[in-house]
Amino acid sequence: MTPADGVHAPRKRRKRGFWGGLYPPAAKYPRLRAVYSGRGGPVPTTLTHGDNTMPLNACVFTLGLTCLFAPPTGASPATTVTAPAAAPAGPATPAWRPEKASEVLTLVQAFYDATKDLSASFKQTYWNPTFASKTVTRGDLRLKKPGMMVWDYDGKTEPDYYADGKKMWIVEHDTRQVVSSAVEENSDLAAAMKFLFGGQTLIKEFKVRYTQDSKKIAKYGDADHYVLDLKPRTKNPHYKGLLLSVHATTGRVDSFVVYNQDGSSNYFELGKLATNKGYKDADFAFKTPAGYVESTPE
Questions:
Q1: CATH number for the domain running over 101-285
Q2: How confident is the model over 138-172, as pLDDT tens digits?
Q3: Based on CB atoms within 10 Å of each CB, which residue in 55, 118, 136, 173 is the most buried?
């Protein structure tokens, strides 16, 4: 039939294949040439590329994508690169700190200079190196300038401490006696008074540095607290030094450690801290309880 007869000759249609459309030309995809060259004869079971072969069914069932993009069998396996393990994170510390530790000490003094009186709960952990033992006690603290303090321990058998800045009374409930002495004779109270009552005492009497011991930083510090080591400029007969955990924003001391000359230590953690409550001097006046005997150590 010719166009002259008014009827157009039918167009030759290209054969459709497994793509759902026209077969891609074998010349354009040389790895597929073996598939089409098998029509009309035995269908090959593998594709060959150099020294490497690939099963044909892997090509067919993945619509040819395996043949086009995946490495043939025999190719070198892909190399898995493992990122090095991240270094262990160090103790949390404030994002910024003054260059000199003495500047933090100035911040501490500013906080307590503005404090007329204070109340807090406390937890005390005493370490005895001779017996390798810890003793934990709790109680409430009250203080008022210029040097009045009450350390009221929980429990009827625990002693309570009263101080007026110069003299201290230890009330021993289990023996029903009161032992009086100078404040300086008690290393823990004497050390605490160095910062609790403000003034220039800290800078004048102590050398200060940021703690370098990572274990101490992890135990006593965090993202909100600096950890300072303080050492007396002049040797003290009762304590070797102090450690302060200082709130980075306010300069408040939230915990402290007193290191005694005998190797023991006292760790105080303060909580529920409130300042300038309006205490009166009478709130700190000490009177020996009825039935108790007062004595002075020789």
A1: 2.50.20.10
A2: 999 999 998 899 999 998 889 999 998 788 999 99
A3: 118
